[in-house]
Design goal:
The complex is a heterodimer. Chain A is an alpha/beta fold. In chain A, 32% of the residues lie in helices and 23% in strands. Chain B is mainly α. Chain B has one domain: Serine Threonine Protein Phosphatase 5, Tetratricopeptide repeat, CATH 1.25.40. In chain B, 67% of the residues lie in helices and 0% in strands. Chain B is built from 9 helices and no strands. The chains are: A alpha/beta, B mainly alpha. Chains A and B meet through helix 2 and helix 3 of A and helix 4 and helix 5 of B.
Amino acid sequence: MTMKKIINNPDQIVDEMLNGLVYAYDSIVERIPETMVVHRKHEKNGKVGLVSGGGSGHEPAHAGFVGQGMLSSAVAGQVFTSPTPDQVLEGIKAADEGEGVLLVIKNYTGDVLNFDMAKDLAELEDIEVESIVVDDDIAVEDSTFTAGKRGVAGTVLVHKILGAAAEEGLSLKEIKALADKVVPNIASIGLALNPATNPEVGKPGFKLEEDEIEFGIGIHGEPGYRREKLQPSKDLAKELVTQLKKTCDWSSGDQYAVLVNGMGATPLMEQFVFMNDVKHLLADDEGLDLAFRKVGDYMTAIDMAGISLTLLKIEDAKWLEYLNAPAKVIGW
Amino acid sequence: MVEIDALKKWIELFGEAVTENKETLNQLDSDIGDGDHGSNMTRGAAAVKEKVSEADYDNLSDFFKDVGMTLVSKVGGASGPLYGSAFISMAKQAKESDDIASLIEAGLEGVQKRGKAETGEKTMIDVWSPVASALKEDKLTSDLIQDSVENTKEMKATKGRASYLGDRSVGHIDPGAQSSAYLFESLLKAGVLNG
């Protein structure tokens, strides 16, 4: 089967995508010349820099979250491949406003390795750097590209909260402490209806039967924990909520932020249907206070059809304030 | 005391070795990884050659830093940061000493810090570590290098992508250990140790 995509040369896809993105939103972002770094345009004002990034194919993550109130810069790797340390270093240098830089890393072996090395390189250039590794996917441990749990859509909530905190003027130390508190309170889990096709590979990353879905799938198509026949949205939501409950161990009245995330080829219509089911299960049946809600494509997997559900337990009212703070970015 | 020219020769020979053995490395990597180690190292070696062959260096540290940063930016995957860390760690050490044994020892520490692996885990460290020890006693030989590579065959991978295979990784030579062997064979051939 031929790959049906709006592309030119698969080798140029990331470069061309970044150029299109910064052209379309040139009031918000710019590309650092000769790099894979998208940087925010607003004036530097002596605040802590926030840098994230990773393999491409997860748009709007991460460049779509660059701007005032979220990331200072985002570093794009090849499709589903971590950016190299020299590129991350460029992102750090662009983000540095003299108060240090915090790296938000999704928990994949390559990302951790490359970002860690960039951190060392930045320190050689006298830039103070801290990092946080997000590992919110509760579906499986030790996956194709990961030791431990994978980092998925919950990362976007981390961008938002830390970005608002940086904008408020918190120090690097304070933001690192905040990150350490927020990340363990995030849990995500996803499912897929159809696999993604990496344009650099040219064929689907895995195979599902016509009437089959897979629970617990990763954002690079990594295996989940169970395959079943397709079922109504409310039953899919029920399964994901049941898994999340095992980890979150909530009580009625607990306050949560909820993110329903499309994986790339799931229509918003279906995402809203799913959110409606999540509302019934979590707010009506479980009695949770879903104080912050988002639906849409935030952390995609190219053209995978599927959805993920992320919950963040709001342990501090300040977190909710940060989630609701204004952000001048493309994708929030 | 090592000479820059000898070091350049070393890195050049290493580049030739990985390029000639590109398919071997890819095949080793296909057996227990994602199959691109030879291609990645070949790309990196070509970039390093372009970077350092015409450049003039006043000191060892700048040379090693250029090698390290080029590998980091061009090799990618896990090998880029691992080899890159080795050479950048050597660049730091070169400010203190120009003794090759202490430089390789520093390189080993760089790889260990980055990869968080110990000996016996079926990685490039299983070549770097015995080589570093042998260099301290001025006893590095081609046989020792070959034996170190062969030893990785019976090890079970617990780090890196090969670790997903668990017991199935046994019976295969680790590709990173093999490319490291080319690195140290080249060190012998370049005459770095004769100085």
